[in-house]
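Hello K.,

You asked for the raw outputs rather than the summary table, so here they are, unedited. I folded two proteins back to back in the same session to keep the settings identical. This is the first:
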Amino acid sequence: MTIRIHGGRVIDPGRLDGIFDILVDRGRIVDILPGQPSFSESVSTLEGGAERIIDAVGLIVIPGLIDLHVHFREPGQEHKETLETGMAAAARGGFIAVCTMPNTRPAADSKDTLGFIVNKSLEVGRVRVFPVGAVTRGLGGQTLCDYAELKAAGAVAVSDDGMPVMNSLLMRQALERANALDLLMISHSEDLLLAAGGAMNEGEISRMMGVKGIPAAAETIGVMRDIALAELTGARLHIAHVSAEGSVRAVREAKERGIRVTAETAPHYMTLTEKDVLKYGTHAKMNPPLRTARDREAVRRGLADGTIDAVATDHAPHTREEKARDFAKAPNGIIGLETALPVSLGLVWDQVMTLPELIEKMSVNPARILGIDNRLTKGNSADLTVIDPHATYRIDAGKFRSKARNTPFDGWAVKGRVVLTMVGGEVVFEEGRQKTEGGAVNFSVE
């Protein structure tokens, strides 16, 4: 199908920012032309014979969002999430691609499990799935996987996410092997001995609640160790879910020394603090835990100055029953695919960063880290996200495409929503716009 996306503000950071029409044919961008900021007056004069014209006037068109860090639970825990429901949630959230973490059951430590994930995701369709293979067999931290096998099966990176590789010699060997194959190492950086038995950030709130805490140093020490090993080996290192001021500082200094390190944080670390555990209970329990207001501000500064390269969701679905357990026994993690963009846009409205800078963090930089090209360029695959920056509403977890509902953001008042996601020229999510007699716009999920 030939499609013309008409009259939107096209933002491709560092390349485009203006009103353009994007022409799509056979799944690819065939042209980008100067557009008109009016649909009704110019639609009759459009050329090119498009079979469908998408009215993007008043909307923003960007390179498709990419999430470097999700947990889709299949195989093994399909009661929490499946590839199908996870991909549907991703499409609704504006994501054209996701990286699935290997802590499935069995772990994604072999060509068989990775092959299942790749084949099932292709069968389901919608968004692109880039699987991450395990660093060690069964995520046990003892025996390295066959990285050549994992890469041949489709792995774009390796990680034992959820667990660090505590043995420094083994981590060095893992980095060397990954580097030889040009595989990205995604590190869950944590000192397990310091963190042992903890369920939330160590501090005033943990003492008030009588819950054993995890000091921020547990993360920062892990980050510093992994950076030292990346410097030693020359390997590419990506630090997952940065939450602590010391970790931001360590990444900033490593970049200044030219070490090949990138980092991500999640929307909850730049919006919430340990005090929100009192309000949201286990829906504010994750690892690393929510930290102090000072840590949150450090994460925001790290995003603004480029120390932190990407915003990733760490989408971690759990059942209601699991999250209803006592705080210390409830599993870590919250879902985030369908809330990431509106929650992150809050930093734009608060003038922490500009809209193009946020797009870099959620789209362009993740693509760069993965070594793929998602720019809005003639000849590229038509992978894009369309946003209504003016829509104001309350997040309603009851309407999520994900199976899970474990989010602290349910009911949050936000501004900005995804109205269309396109992958390979195919519209995989669309939210209809109907104008009322008074000129207002109502939304309905199609």
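The second followed immediately with the same parameters:
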Amino acid sequence: MSAVSSIVPEAAHSRPSVALVCLRGAINMASWLGNAGAVENGLKTRGHAVERLNVDNEGFSLPLKAKQFAMTRLLQHGYSRHREPAMLTHYGREISRSLRKSRPDVVLSFTAMPVAQLASDAPIVIWNDTSFAGMMDFYPNFMNMTKASIRDGHAMERAAHARAELILYSSRWAAGVAMDAYGVPEKKIRILGFGANVESGLTEKQNAIVAKEKATGHVCRLLWIGVEWERKGGAVAIEIAARLEDLGVPVELVIAGCLPPSGLSLPAFVRPVGFIPRAQLAEILIASHFVVIPSVADCSPIAFAEASAFGVPSLGTRVGGIAEVILDDRNGRVFGCDDPPEAYAAYIAAVLAEDGRYESLARSTFDEFQTRLNWDTVLDTASGYLTEIGSN
């Protein structure tokens, strides 16, 4: 385990100190590590002393890695070694050792796994986008799980929720799943989403100018972002673009984050760029008319918040907590999982065809970023929760 501690001198004692626990390897690195950096820096600027605890030493995990390979690749079972009781005990011991040195006022953990077996004198706060119950039979890696894996996953969540003083979920959907599955009392839960992990630097005036230029452009530029092609609906995004062309709207679809499966025949309007640096992604975002991610399984995708930071409306599916990130006709539109690609294409074409409608949608999209989908707003609320918990 590595730990980095930093204090804002002029406000070091005005807010409770925080140990920020981040489990590496068990989480989506691209989004969660971006979240961790934003939260760490944001809490420091609000007067919290923050010690970052990156749980990256799995110690004895080699046998469990072998088990995971056998379970997932050979037997085709869903399995996560990070929810094994022995691994949870290991995490708890490692974190406890660090906490005895730093003695924080509050422990803030991304996901429940690191703190399920944590003995801590400081109150524990968990921040997550869903629980094990929300992932099971929903995400591909959580399909066809063995009885033992299901038992361990639920036991982990019950233990973590019992230890925590407060649980922050990024959506009402995720909170509802936890309350139903684990009997977590509503008074123990708060809803707090995530901010965008990219800054556009746009002002309202600049966003309006960019939106007007795009509204009068000849080609509709769509952007799909993801690292899991099937779960994020990559093939459906291509179909949406194709149906848009059928309606007489020239289109370009940029595929970012991963490459389409090898052997897939791509239409001429598809431009795969794969994994790209954040600066290049920002350039593509600001040139895009819509972000289109028709996921079959998702929680609270940060890509939609990041699109809003550039005034780019998002189109997604009504699964998980997506409908709480994308508000219809405010920063995009959500569609049912059974809605055909034609429904997406018809919406896009209608928005572009009606005079002033795209510019209006771009303005309200940027407003959603400024009012709720940014880290300043989110962390003002989070700091208040941590101060309340740490002062009790």
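The mean pLDDT is 91.

Happy to rerun anything if the numbers look odd on your end.

Regards,
P.
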